[in-house]
Amino acid sequence: MFDSVFQSFDDSADSSRSKARLAVLRADMKRLGLFGFLVPRADAHQNEYVPASEERLAWLTGFTGSAGTALITLDQAVIFVDGRYTVQVRDQIDKTVVTPVNSGETSPSEWIRKNFSAGQVLGFDPWLHTADAVERLRKAVADAGAELKAVDENPIDISWTDRPEPPLAPVVEHPEKFAGESADKKLARLHTAVVNAKADAIVLTDPHEIAWLFNIRGGDVAHTPLPLAWAVIPVEGRPALLIDGRKLSNELRDHLEDLADVGEPSEFETLLNMLGGKKVMFDFGAGAERIRQVLNDTGATIVKTQSPIALMKAVKNGAEIRGTRAAHQRDGVAFAQFLFWLDTNLKKKKLDEIEAAEALEAFRRDTAKLKDISFPTISAAGPNAALPHYRVTRATNRKITPGLYLVDSGAQYQDGTTDITRTIAIGKVTKDMRDRYTRVLKGHIAIATAQFPKGATGAQLDPLARRALWEIGADFDHGTGHGVGSYLSVHEGPQRISKLGHTPLEPGMILSNEPGYYKEGAFGIRIENLVLVERSKLKTAERDFLSFETLTLAPIDTRPIDPKLLTKEEVAWLDAYHKRVASEIGPKLDPKTRAWLKAVCAPLLASAQKKPKKNDSKNAGRNSRKKRKPGRR
């Protein structure tokens, strides 16, 4: 019925040749004098999504998750993944040759300390690890009495004979009506930040920051409109932008050359060598170790700092906020159409995960504004939903049967990036499902309604989303929320709601609100909206307080809710949210879908009846027929 344009459901995971590939890698390690070698899922820019030419970890092990690191020694092979991927990694790798390790329980540094000894050498590709990560590795290796060695050529690249070519997607200008600020003004702001840091230049390695700074977008990686590039911004002289010229039209090149000297990526190290004797700002947490090495060797004084662009980009301006509101309205219409389609068709026949994912993408394409999906759709039925980052393939595709169905998806529009998760009741749900669903909803509402002082961080808010689950000894193994870009990455920092979220939240930041619950082998639950940090309207506040505006507009399924677990304030929030969804999205829908939306957005307790007072026979009949007001218990 529907076709997918922006995602594939073919299973790219292949561990069948891991044993042979590990044997070749170990032979090259011996030749290089290495006892161990690290294989991260990374490229030279430390992107979340990497080009096919950089998928070394998947090529070696078969694991296709977005985060992980393999450590190969001459006698062992382990792969470290976090809690999102502990089930997926076991399904994808050949466990007879590679052992999965939960990085939340044993970090690579801890493993190195236990498994390396004096005289042994651990090799790594300095382009694929951040300078911060290498500092941690160096300490762990030293504690073991071993040695850490950067290799000049990645041994995997030697044996990866059919490696894809690097991407050459066209680069386009991102119009100022969406960006909200011209590139020259952004460059001026950055120049001021470098001057204030008493530095001579800043080296930019993150394509997200470069795309934001120069108001350009590309297509070199999946689902994020990035042009791979490097940049150096000096205090004196012109900025330098290094990007493959084959991606640029003549018109765009002329525009960019008004802003900077445009060169090729192959010139990057030469440019770094010209910074000798200068004070250079460099982000150790985002930039490759190789860049730190070159700057150090050339005699530059490195100012170790987070790039000031990270915070500039995180705080959205008026145009970006207006754009994201428009994007969420548009996306809400498409999502409502999808939910109506799902509800209607499941009454007629069985659907599967792929059919649902294709339908959702099709409704978004029908907006005529969709540039891409913002990540592969997580369309997960039954036990597949217990994998937080499940990706449906033709091999794993399940029918959507009674229970819970989870769909986590997003869209890239030129005016904004969206990300939404809904968990939907299909037929009868169990008491256990109903309890956990309601507790996840309570956590979601706790974040949505939070009032917090200026200067508060995501780490301080994170427990609010977990309290209802903690009360019964349950939890979830991912952050409650990540930052979101403006027609950029759906996962943006430095803002986040998690125990690692130490950046103070500021008005204009966009984050996700997505608590969850996962019962391995049974079901999964997540409810996600995007929220905008705004100044609080709390009249009793004695200092500057902040709160959240919910941006996402889509109904939350009320069928799995246990109303007895909700407070009257939580019911009131849900009813008000649904009233807003119906009023903003409803008029844009066809009559049948509008009628369906009105029904699913009805007040939660509208059909509940007030209990008559004891011994009040006169009013008993009348009270039993009176509908309870929304929000009352």
Which class best fits the helix and strand makeup? alpha+beta
Compute the number of structural domains: 3
Report, as a whole number of angstroms, the end-to-end distance.
44 Å
Number of helices: 20
CATH architecture of the largest domain: Alpha-Beta Complex
Name the poorly predicted regions: 607-633
The first-level CATH class name of the largest domain = Alpha Beta
Task: Count all strands and give the number.
Answer: 28
Strand coverage percent: 15-25%
What's the CATH superfamily of the largest domain, by name? Creatinase/methionine aminopeptidase superfamily
Can you tell me the CATH topology of the largest domain? Answer: Creatine Amidinohydrolase
- Name the strands of the widest sheet in spatial order: 4-3-2-1-5-6
Helical content (DSSP H or I, runs of 4+): 25-40%
Oligomeric state of the chains present here:
single chain
Keywords: Aminopeptidase, Hydrolase, Metal-binding, Protease
Pfam family, one: Peptidase_M24_C
GO molecular function, one term: metalloaminopeptidase activity
GO cellular component, one term: cytoplasm
